Amino acid sequence: PAHIRYGFLAKGVKPGDDLLLPLSPNQHRLQHMMGEKLFWHSHLSPETLMEALKALARERYRAWKETNDNR
Asked: CA of 57: how far to CAs of 3, 40, 45, 53, 60, in Å?
């Protein structure tokens, strides 16, 4: 996983887990080698990815809740 630092926090502030995105080990290394800002600008926007993952998590939670509330 990779913490997203640019554009969200002041310099030197460690982001929380709500700004954590899954990356493969190779992508994570590349992110560090390229620099975070350049990496994300040349790949998928971190904002887009975070919103998609949050939407998926909400959908899965609703489905789980409906299944378990009916027991």
From this structure: 18, 22, 18, 6, 5
Distance of CA 33 to the CA centre of its chain: 19
Which residues of the chain, if any, have pLDDT below 70?
1, 3, 5-11, 70-71
- Our CA dihedral for 60, 4, 9, 12, rounded to 10 degrees, sits at 140
pTM above 0.90, yes or no: no
Helix, strand, coil in percent for the chain, rounding step 5: 60, 5, 30
Residue with tokens 């800002």: 37
